[in-house]
């Protein structure tokens, strides 16, 4: 018989927080604005073509401190995990998600 005492012990006392991941990869958490993929200019068949860089997101707010310092691009996965974590934390602490991440209250954010 296999001993499963850890599973039984930890399975009894587990805290679970379910959070909504809506818009977490598209919203800049510091200004609550939509983020955009940066573009790179490539040469294909002797033509200049712009292509989206899918692994990064960039803030285009002219008031953004990160943009003013030239560091407005962020990795998508890092930003998304921060947004999901903060959304879950606010859901646990104050029983309310971020308004821009909550799907019903973000009608002002357009593509």
Automatic annotation (TrEMBL):
**What is the name attached to this protein's record?**
Uncharacterized protein
Q: Which domain of life is it from?
A: Eukaryota
The species this protein belongs to is Rhizopus microsporus var. microsporus
């Amino acid at each position: 018989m296999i001993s499963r005492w850890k599973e039984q012990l930890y399975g009894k006392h587990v805290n679970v927080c379910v959070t909504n991941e809506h818009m977490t990869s598209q919203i800049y958490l510091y200004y609550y604005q939509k983020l955009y993929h940066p573009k790179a200019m490539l040469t294909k068949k002797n033509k200049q073509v712009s292509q989206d860089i899918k692994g990064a997101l960039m803030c285009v707010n002219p008031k953004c401190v990160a943009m003013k310092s030239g560091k407005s691009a962020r990795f998508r996965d890092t930003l998304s995990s921060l947004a999901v974590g903060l959304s879950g934390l606010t859901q646990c602490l104050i029983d309310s998600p971020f308004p821009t991440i909550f799907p019903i209250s973000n009608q002002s954010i357009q593509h």
